[in-house]
Every structure is written in structure tokens, then in C-alpha cells.
Specification:
The chain is of the alpha+beta class. It folds into two domains: 167 residues, no CATH class; 74 residues. 45% of the residues lie in helices and 12% in strands. The chain is built from eight helices and eight strands, in the order αβαβαββααββββααα. The strands form two sheets. Strands 2-4-8-5-6-7 form a six-stranded antiparallel β-sheet, with helices on one face. β6 and β7 form a beta hairpin. The longest helix is centred in the C-terminal third of the chain and has 36 residues. The radius of gyration is 28 Å and the shape is elongated. It binds zinc ion. The site of zinc ion has 4 residues, from β4.
Length: 278
Amino acid sequence: MASRQHLAWLARGGKWRLCAPGIQLRDQLRAAGYTVYDLGNEEHLDHQPPEDHTPYSATGWPARTAPYGVVFAVDIMPPDNVARAKAGKPPLPSLQVLGRKLHDDKAARLFPPIKYINWGPVDDQHAVHCSWQPGHAQTSSSDTGHIHISFRTDMADWSGAYDPLGGDLGMSASEIIEAWAVGMPKTSGGSTVEPVKWRVRDEAWQAATSAQLSALTAAIQAMAKGGTSVDTAAVIAAVRDAGTQTNAVVQALQAEVEDLRSRLAAAGAGLAGGTAAH
Ligand SMILES: [Zn+2]
């Protein structure tokens, strides 16, 4: 049954446009190979109250009644990386990676028009609802299988530079792997290649530890040869000094492990896929 708002909109000619930030995001993602939807299907158009996939949303924000004729939402579907591989195309970032990027870029004020985003940080079968109206709030969501983005009613004509696939997201996996294998500390996009950073750090740690062991061995050999004439106080000081340095290294490593753990949690399950439709 067509809703009152749906019928009224059809009677007025059924015209609509997507808000400007939605057009920009949709077209960037479609160009990359994603399927992106904007105007909702009949179910959306007849839903009460009409929401942001309709050109007559009654759930807008900050204006509850959205500008008439403007659609304020897009849905991004999971990339079919199996089909892409068969076609010889590079894989696209999963919705976990892309959702995290959009979420973090909104939080960092790089893409202000987002009102809320429903996305699956872990996989495409679970979702959370993250809103900024205006403060950030997160709740669980049943809107799974895609990324839903709703835009602010006061930014229908927003135009700013924003690239959802910028940085490493836009880079093919093969470039990261190559940088890793060759030992390049940075990618062409300027991002740090983490495994290379870890290797450099580990090699430095091993060198420092080896030097300390050499110094200790020399001190012990001197003690063994010198008998009572050796400066015992100096040897003890050297051992204590080596111990202090080792503690500092261990503490630095622990801090780095904590940092990596939080970053891994933030990165989520970047390789998850799925084919749910909305
Ligand atoms: Zn949606």
C-alpha cells in the first residue's frame, strides 16, 4: 500500500536528487567497482515514517523534515572479490575496512556530512549504529549486510575534498605485499608499512642486546682472569646498567604491543566478505 507521502511525491512529478555529499561518495565508490544504492525501493518509499532513502524524509537531522525532493542516504554493498579476481581485477577493501575508514574520517572531521553510519566492524552479518547528532553515540543495529550512510539535512549541498579510498585503502594489496617483501618502510602513498617497521625495530633491539651481552661477557672474562685485582664495583655497575637498559627496552616493547593491539582491534576483520542484499 503506497503511503500518503509516496503518493503526494508521485503527484508532484516524482522528482528526486541525491544530496551532494551522497553523489560524491556514491560516484567515487561506483567508479572503484562497488555497488551503491541511493533512492529506496517501494518498501522504503512506503515506510512510516519515511526515512533517509526517500526524497521526503521525516527522520532528518538537524532538520526533522528534510529538504523536499532530496535523498539523504546511500547503501554500499559488499564487494564480490571472488568475481573480481576471476576477472583479473584487484580486490576492493571489505565493508569492515571501508566502514572503519568512513567512521574514523567522520570522527576526525574529514567528512562532516555524515549523520550516522550503520556498519559491521566485525563482519557483514552484524552491525552497529554510529551517530553524530551532534555527539558520537553507538548502539547495536539490525541493519546488516551493507554500509548505510545517512547525511545531515543542513549539508545537502556540501562540497569538500574527500576520498573514501585514499591512502592505503586505494592501493592494491600487491603493492603492500611488495613493499613488505622488499623492506620499503613506506608505501607510495606515504603510509608506514607496519611489518617493515617491526623488523627494523627488532633488528635494532637484537643489535643492542648483543652489544650488552658482549660487554657483560668481557667484564666476566676480565673478572675471571684478574682474580682479586679486578674492580668488582665497576663490574657490578656494568651489570646493573645493562639490566636497567634491558628494562627500558622491555617497557618500550610493551607500550608498542599495547598500541598494536588497539590498532588491530580498530582494523577489525578486514578480510571478511558476504553477499547479503538490502
Ligand atoms: Zn540504507
